[in-house]
Design goal:
Distance between the termini: 56 Å
Strand order of the largest sheet: 3-5-4
Oligomer: single chain
Number of helices: 12
Number of domains: 1
Helix content: 55-70%
Shape: globular
Length: about 260
């Protein structure tokens, strides 16, 4: 009976799917789950990530991350600003970060080895926040709704998270929240993130330096988690070109008093 109910929920979810358009003009297929359910999944995945930890208790670095996130969030649409954004700093040497639906942002301490200043950190976090505001997680789950894992996924939504975990299928794995997005999504997050950082008063040209640092940290090869991104050299060229286009946006933000002082 339980599986029948969940199967019916899958059918209902698929029927509710719809096409929409991202801020870059790309058509998206979304709506496999409601916004409330998506935020619930994000919150549960964040709890899981923090439970696995370990978390960093470095007060200065935690404040630094919160400062950059807050500066970026202030430039988001009103609905996104109304979300209670939460950050977590993980004691992990891998240079990585993520953002989840519901306003959850995680950062590894290893990111500071490649993000040398607040503008470069903003480039990382704006990119990750871009995935959230452009509904990339919604897209992923909507695609998964027709897969065999959908019953387990909806089981988690129905409150069966404990059972899901004991079956060896964590929520993070089921949703793919922390896996790289498609190449199209990663490119879109670059575009949206670089625009967001400029609007917040962070230098968009520093996105170029950040990704150069990323590649250098891998001994001339990009980290494995960047494998779905465009060719590194092409990507850097696109970031450099957009930085020039966004220079007026950045200058206007600074003139308007948006001058972040995070560290």
């Amino acid at each position: 009976m339980k599986h029948w109910i969940l199967s019916a929920a899958i059918v209902a979810g698929l029927a509710a799917c719809a096409t929409t358009t991202s801020s870059t003009g790309r058509r998206q297929y979304v709506g496999g789950v409601s916004e409330q359910q998506l935020n619930q999944l994000g919150a549960q995945a964040f709890v899981e990530a923090k439970t696995k930890g370990p978390l960093s208790n470095d007060a200065k670095q935690n404040a630094y991350v919160r400062c950059v996130v807050n500066a970026l969030v202030r430039q988001l649409p009103p609905q996104a600003q109304g979300t209670s954004w939460e950050t977590a700093l993980f004691a992990n040497k891998e240079p990585n970060a993520f953002a989840l639906p519901g306003g959850k942002v995680g950062v590894n301490t290893g990111i500071f080895s490649v993000a040398k200043n607040q503008d470069q950190l903003a480039a990382v976090l704006a990119h990750e926040i871009g995935h959230v505001v452009e509904r990339h997680h919604d897209e992923r789950i909507t695609r998964q709704m027709g897969a065999s894992g959908a019953v387990q996924l909806l089981g988690a939504l129905a409150g069966d998270y404990g059972s899901l975990a004991t079956q060896g299928g964590s929520l993070l794995a089921q949703t793919g929240f922390l896996l790289p997005g498609s190449r199209v999504q990663e490119t879109e997050a670059d575009v949206v993130g670089q625009r967001l950082m400029a609007e917040a008063g962070f230098d968009p040209a520093q996105a170029v330096n950040l990704w150069q640092n990323m590649i250098a940290s891998g001994g001339g090869r990009p980290p494995e988690w960047l494998s779905t991104h465009p060719n590194p050299e092409s990507r850097i060229q696109e970031l450099r070109s957009r930085a020039g286009t966004l220079a007026p946006t950045y200058q206007q933000a600074r003139a308007s008093g948006r001058v972040p002082k995070c560290g």
